Amino acid sequence: MTSRDAPDPAVLAPRLPSPLREAADERFTRHGLRLLLKRDDLIHPELVGNKWRKLAPNLQAAAGRTVLTFGGAYSNHLRATAAAGRLLGLPTVGVVRGHELADRPLNPSLARCAADGMRLHFVDRSTYRRKAEPETLAAVLRAVGAADAHVVPEGGSNALAVRGCRALGEELGERADVVAVACGTGGTLAGLAAGLPPGRRALGIPVLRGGFLGDEVQALQERAFGGRRGAWSLDERFHFGGYARTTPELDAFAEDFSARHGLPVERLYVAKLLYALVTLADEGAFPRGTTIAAVVTGRPFPDRP
Q: What is the domain class of 66-148 according to CATH?
C-alpha cells in the first residue's frame, strides 16, 4: 500500500444495513407504542456500531497515512481504530489521556490496542484538554513523528464521520417516527438526523453532564452540511452522574432488559438510552401510535471496570 492508496473499508465486510428488530415490551405497548431495536452492534465484530459509521469515511480520507486519534484508558474508539488499522494495514497512533498511565501495566483495553499495532502516546490531562488547539496538536504530531497523519478527534466525530452517520437515518427511512441514540460527542446524532426523511425526528440521550452537547451537534452539522439538518432534540436527564458512571438501579435495569429481550446491554451508552425511553414512555412523551427505534451502538466488554 502506497501513501496515496485509499483503503476500502468494504474489505472489512460490514453487515449493512444493520438489522432492525421489534422488541415486544409491555412498558411500551401499554402506552400504545412500538419499540424497535436498530442493531448497529452487529455491523462488525470489532468496529461495533457507530464506530464503523464514523471510521469508514476517515479511513478512506487517510489514504494510507498514519491515523492518529485520542481517547481515555478504556476508549472504545481507540480500540476500534486500532482494530481497523490492523485489518487494513494502516499505522495508528492513540493519544491517551493520563500521563501517569505510561508507567503502569496496560489495562486490557489498551493492551488490545497495542496488540493490534497501535502506538500509544500518553499525555498529561492538561495537554489532553488542549488537544484541539493547533499548537498543542502540532507538538503531539512532532512527538510521535507523524506530521502528515490523518487526525481523527476523540470519539471520531468530525464532518466526515457525521456524513457517514447520515446512512443510519437513511436505512431507517420511514420505519420509525422517533429514532433515539445515546450521545457522547454528538456525531452520530448529527448524521442520523440529517438522514431521516421529513416528519421523522431524532432524539439524543447525552451520557455526559454539562449541557453543552446541543451546541456541539449544531456545530458538527454546520461543518458537515453547512447548517442544521433534520429534526432533533436532546434530553439531558439520563447521564447517571456522567460519562462512565452507572448506578445499581441502572445495572438492575440493564440486566432486566437483557433477560426480557436477549440483548447484551452495554452500560455506559445503551443502558442509559433504553432507561430514558422507558421513562419517557411512562411520562407520556410519545403519542399513542408512535414507533420508536433505539439505536444499539455497542455491546458490553468484559474487560471494562
A: alpha beta
